[in-house]
Amino acid sequence: MYCSVCGAQVDAALNYCNRCGNRVPRGESMSVAENLSQAVGYVGGFGLLGFIFVCIVLLRREIPMEVFVPIAAFYLIALVAICWMMLRYSSQLTKMKVEASRSGDNFSDPHYLNPRTTTQLDEPAQQPASVIEHTTRTLDKTAVNR
Predict the structure, then answer these.
(1) 8 Å CB contact between 40 and 87
(2) Does the predicted TM-score (pTM) go above 0.85?
(3) What span, in angstroms and rounded, lies between the C-alpha atoms of 38 and 21?
(4) Residue 50, CB-side half-sphere exposure with 13 Å CA sphere
(5) Residue 27 · residue 6 · CB < 8 Å
(6) How many DSSP H helices and E strands does the chain contain?
(7) CA distances for 135 relative to 132, 138, 142, angstroms
(8) What residues does 2 pair with on adjacent strands?
(9) Is residue 71 within 8 Å of residue 54, measured between CB atoms?
(10) Are 36 and 93 in contact (CB under 8 A)?
(11) pLDDT score recorded for residue 20
């Protein structure tokens, strides 16, 4: 494997190039939006299996239809709402990624701040009060009027 920036040979186990320090791209992994889209399928599938199970349990216990229908309707509405919110969020993530790629930002790479050294720190605006000054003032002898 070779670095795409400097062309140096890079060991396959490394994440960064030994020569230039740039990140070595790995095989394309699934984005968060794609993972969410797949999760919707699993949530929907297992949700429907759970719905069938709940219906069977309720019908075996001979629950009256006046109670069964609202329970079933609530379950299905909640399942559809959960799947819809997940799909909406994954589409928002996809839009954000497209906008970031158009603006030139690299959406997948985290942004790191350069650490500040002690030479870069600003001087304090005013000197902090001394603890000793405060304690000596309170321990001074004062005249007691009796």
Answers:
(1) yes
(2) no
(3) 35
(4) 11
(5) no
(6) 3, 0
(7) 5, 5, 14
(8) 9
(9) yes
(10) yes
(11) 83
Per residue in 61-80, pLDDT tens? 988 999 999 999 999 999 99
The pair of structure tokens assigned to 14 is 């490394």
Tokens linked to 74: 């609530």
If one counts every other C-beta atom within 10 angstroms of the C-beta of residue 36, the result is 20
Which tens digits make up the pLDDT trace of 6-29? Answer: 777 888 778 888 888 888 776 555
Confidence at residue 107, expressed as pLDDT on a 0 to 100 scale? 47
Question: How many angstroms separate the Cα of 125 from the Cα of each of 59, 116, 134?
Answer: 75, 19, 21
End-to-end CA distance of the chain: 92
Q: What is the distance of C-alpha 75 from the center of its chain?
A: 28
The answer to whether the beta carbons of residues 35 and 97 sit under 8 Å apart is no
Assign 3-state DSSP to the chain and report helix, strand, coil percentages, each to 5.
Answer: 55, 5, 40
- Per-residue tokens: 98: 């497209």
Maximum CA extent, the chain: 92
Q: How far apart are CA 76 and CA 84, in angstroms?
A: 12
Residue length of the chain: 146
